[in-house]
Write a structure and sequence with these properties.
The complex is a heterodimer of chains A (about 625) and B (about 260). Chain A is mainly α and about 625 residues long. Chain A has 26 helices and six strands. The N and C termini of chain A lie far apart (about 70 Å). In chain B, a hairpin with a 2-residue loop joins strand 4 and strand 5. Classes of the chains: A mainly alpha (about 625), B alpha/beta (about 260).
Chain lengths: ~625, ~260
């Protein structure tokens, strides 16, 4: 019994910090309608900055707390000014979500360079000796956590409900346009919500730091947990965020204590998926799927994607085919052929994502979850049950399709964010199951002894044979998808993305298309996951985790959404560059984040789109320019 | 030729928060005719369209299109029945070119299955060529042919409304509902639109047009339905309606500036 209480108390502490992160989410969501997925980074920033101030610069505790909190607030404000505000009028809501992902990646990369990859622990505020309350030992730091959380919650509650300022903030949440007409300075409110959200996150990190270990990428964990709490409690409700956070901490610790720490998130994620599906307003929320359409209709300057057609398309295709054909011969035994195989495999996954995001405008933040389903299913069936790799891959795809069908059917009636959030929850869930079910999946250390892919007696054992197999498959899929994209199916998807009501008035069965494109993209991700497992002969949860999902989005945006060929540029860059420049790998995360943010803001067509536009301008400038005819579409 | 009923409304009613927007509206439209729906602002014209296409669910009454009761049909299923509509504000698809916008309109007419599209089979190629040819012909008619590859949102508003109309025509509707197609058009464009609408009617498409522009309405309509405060106050040929004292009182009297 005492043990249970001690575990519960521990859960309460962790839950307090989750609640703080969720409150940060809520603040930003209230004003902007998008949860700030970079929120978890501020927890890490607060804790690590505090560690540096205290141990490196020997600041006293109080100064260090104030200093690191102020630092986080300043970073939050700068982020709002430099990135969020310029983006608000350029990006649709799904783009904002991805922008946040870019910022989270950026912060992780920056932390990695500043603080390195080792875990840190801050000294406790008031000694290491726990206090015994009714026989239950409680670390004194716990009182700090609870005290600080309570103080912040009370203060925020007072500001939001009892002051004019709070009223203005809530007005922004209800209707930003009306609020601005009433004289509320909406930009100032956005700035405030980001700075304060960052400060609250940082304080969470500072008080939790002493009883946990924090490293550069712990932010992802806090973002995930804070997001779960935020969504469980009903997006946008402060009270819900706090209850959600505390509940999450409690369930997490109890699961860890009594079942397995590997499963700590599984239960809550199942609960979260159920909530997103059946009660999109959250357990406590009553408002349901509020204000989805209101925000969706912010006119974003959606220029049609530049397309290659006619002779230029044939030239590009020929060039691509020749390059793919001779590249391994040129590379010889440099080992880069292996990286090229991985490039091809990931390209297959990102192709599906492009159809989903670039054409239909739906966001999946958990696409690697389908890679995991495909990879693990195929690997387990092939290693344990001796099923042929081809059949095993097929079973994986069937399973992915089933999951995708359920996810998309229940979210199809909700717009915008809900599919993104449900897929995020799904990706996290698959991740936690892969870690937790160690007897089946090999757990965190991975599944070994997966055979090579083989078809009808031929085994793809060498990198070279894999290379031609994967790239042949990727090329065939590219052609098939490009055909779909340029005919009625692709047009229906793009019309759906642009204006659902107008699309339906022309007879387009919008839900049908949303579901089918999601299924298609899930199947491709699943296929990529299976190939990945067969190629590596090994599969671990981190190879197909949420980080992978976010990386796939980065690749897509980097290369150019809605072009199918473009993502290849992104995949190749992010796969080959780190392989070619191993010593610089510490900068990889930072560069990824910076690129993602910059491209979202300044190069909406991605690298490929930007290149084509430049060529097009060149073609116009020259009297009878090169045979690049880029406008329009076949 | 026996003139069948293309569209029939029986006692349609809809209120928003106690305000009666449409009250017991009944009418029928003969196949092959061009019917104009007029009425002062707030008379319920757009609400009527939204009820007919099931964007709103009526509080009472029903509507049928070519004898099929529309209750329970989704907006896209209604379009599949042959009833296609445009909207009061231009709703071109952003992110698509002018030509692509028009091609979307042909969605209902495509027979090729997605797997055939993926393989770019001969029937797909034939179909794509056919709709492209038709789209280009329509663009030629409304004078947008030289802007076919521009982003649709870059067109002036009047041209966007014309684009909406020809996009709807690509669906080869049996019954076309146009919500203020002439709003935002200059006199020249309005005259072009009038010619286009008459040509569409002569091609056998039944038209129902909500319009403010009285000279356009009186010039081309076979039948006029006058709405005021959610009720039908007059129906008949333009000449009869124009002579109706209730119409003059309710509509022309109040909005003297309408040309």
């Amino acid at each position: 019994m005492r043990e249970a209480v001690e575990i519960a108390v521990g859960g309460f502490f962790a839950g307090s910090v989750f609640a703080l992160v969720a409150v940060g989410f809520t603040l930003v969501y209230s004003v902007m309608g998008v949860p700030n997925l970079a929120q978890g980074a501020f927890v890490v920033l607060g804790a690590l900055a505090m560690y540096s101030l205290e141990t490196r610069f020997h600041w006293p505790l109080a100064y260090a707390i104030v200093g690191s909190t102020a630092m986080a607030a300043a970073v939050g404000a700068a982020m709002e000014r430099l990135v969020i505000r310029p983006a608000l009028h350029r990006l649709p809501i799904s783009g904002m979500l991805i922008l946040m992902v870019g910022l989270l990646t950026f912060f992780e990369g920056a932390s990695l360079i500043i603080w390195g990859s080792q875990p840190y622990s801050i000294p406790t505020f008031s000694g290491e000796r726990p206090v015994a309350v009714a026989g239950v030992r409680i670390p004194t730091q716990g009182f700090w956590i609870i005290g600080v959380t309570a103080a912040i919650v009370v203060l925020l509650w007072y500001i939001l409900t009892r002051t004019i300022f709070g009223k203005a903030l809530r007005a922004c949440a209800e209707n930003p346009l009306a609020a601005s007409l009433m004289g509320v300075q909406v930009p100032r409110m956005t700035l405030f919500s980001f700075a304060v959200g960052a400060a609250i996150g940082a304080i969470g990190g500072e008080v939790l730091g002493p009883i946990t270990s924090i490293e550069f990428d712990t932010g992802r964990f806090f973002t995930n947990s804070g997001f779960i709490a935020f969504a469980l409690g009903g997006m946008g409700s402060f009270f819900g965020a706090i209850v959600g956070g505390l509940g999450l901490g409690l369930v997490q610790q109890l699961t860890a204590g009594y079942i397995s720490s590997l499963f700590s998130n599984t239960l809550t994620l199942v609960l979260l998926l159920a909530v997103l599906i059946w009660r999109p307003g959250g357990i406590l929320g009553s408002s349901g799927a509020r204000r989805e359409d209101a925000r969706e209709f912010i006119a974003h300057s959606a220029a049609p994607a530049v397309r290659v057609r006619g002779p230029a398309a044939w030239a590009l295709a020929l060039l691509g085919t020749i390059t793919v054909g001779v590249l391994p011969l040129l590379l010889g035994r440099t080992g880069l052929t292996g990286s090229l195989v991985i490039t091809g495999i990931l390209f297959i996954g990102v192709l599906g994502l492009d159809l989903l995001m670039g054409y239909a405008g739906l966001v999946s933040l958990g696409h690697a979850g389908f890679m995991a389903v495909g990879g693990y299913t195929a690997a387990i069936l092939a290693t344990r049950y001796g099923l042929g790799p081809l059949a095993a891959t097929g079973v994986g795809i069937a399973l992915s399709l089933t999951v995708a069908l359920v996810l998309s059917l229940v979210t199809a009636r909700l717009r915008g964010l809900y599919l993104a959030l449900a897929t995020l929850a799904f990706g996290l869930l698959v991740d936690s199951v892969a870690v937790g079910l160690s007897s089946v999946t090999g757990g965190p250390s991975g599944l070994v002894g997966i055979p090579s892919f083989s078809v009808g007696g031929y085994t793809f054992a060498s990198p070279i044979s894999n290379y031609y197999f994967v790239w042949g498959l990727a090329g065939a899929l590219l052609i098939v998808l490009a055909n779909l994209a340029r005919s009625g199916y692709g047009r229906a998807l793009r019309a759906t993305r642009a204006d659902q009501t107008a699309a339906r008035a022309l007879g387009i069965q919008v839900p049908h298309y949303k579901v089918s494109v999601f299924l298609l993209s899930a199947a491709l991700a699943s296929l990529a996951g299976s190939l990945y497992a067969f190629y590596f002969h090994f599969l671990s949860p981190e190879m197909v985790s949420t980080s992978r999902s976010l990386e796939m989005i980065t690749m897509l945006v980097l290369g150019g959404e809605g072009t199918l060929v473009g993502p290849l540029v992104g995949v190749a860059l992010l796969t080959l560059l780190p392989a070619a420049f191993q010593p610089l790998s510490i900068y990889k995360t930072l560069v990824e984040g910076v690129f993602l943010v910059l491209i979202l803001l300044y190069l909406p067509g991605g690298i490929f789109g930007g290149l084509l536009t430049a060529l097009q301008r060149l073609g116009r400038a020259l009297p009878r320019g090169p045979a690049v005819e880029t406008a329009g579409r076949i | 030729m026996v003139n069948a009923i293309a569209l029939e409304a029986r006692g349609l009613s809809k209120s928003f928060g106690g305000v009666l927007a449409i009250a017991d509206v009944s009418f029928s439209i003969t196949e092959g005719s061009l019917t104009a729906t007029i009425g002062p602002n707030g008379a319920g014209k757009t609400t009527l369209f939204n009820l007919l296409t099931n964007l709103y669910r009526p509080d009472a009454g029903s509507a049928s299109c070519f004898g099929v009761d529309l209750a329970g049909f989704t907006p896209d299923a209604i379009a599949a029945l042959g009833l296609v509509r445009t909207f009061q504000t231009a709703r071109v698809f952003p992110g698509m070119t002018v030509l692509e916008n028009v091609l979307v309109g042909a969605h209902l007419r495509l027979r090729a299955r997605p797997w055939q599209q993926a393989l770019w089979l001969r029937n797909v190629r034939r179909e794509e060529r056919a709709i492209r040819k038709k789209a280009e012909a329509l663009l030629e008619i409304v004078g947008l042919a030289d802007r076919r590859d521009d982003p649709a949102v870059s067109l002036p508003l009047g041209a966007q409304k014309l684009l909406d109309v020809i996009r709807a025509l690509m669906a080869t509707p049996r019954l076309l509902l146009l919500d203020e197609p002439a709003a935002g058009l200059n006199d020249f464009e309005t005259a072009e639109l009038a010619r286009l609408l008459l040509a569409v009617r002569d091609a056998g498409v039944t038209l129902m047009v909500v319009e403010h522009n009285m000279s356009l309405v009186m010039g081309i309509a076979d039948e006029v339905i006058v709405l005021d405060l959610g009720k039908v106050i007059a129906t008949g040929s333009p000449a009869i309606v124009q002579a109706n004292p209730r119409v003059i009182d309710a509509y022309l009297g109040r909005e003297a500036e309408v040309v």
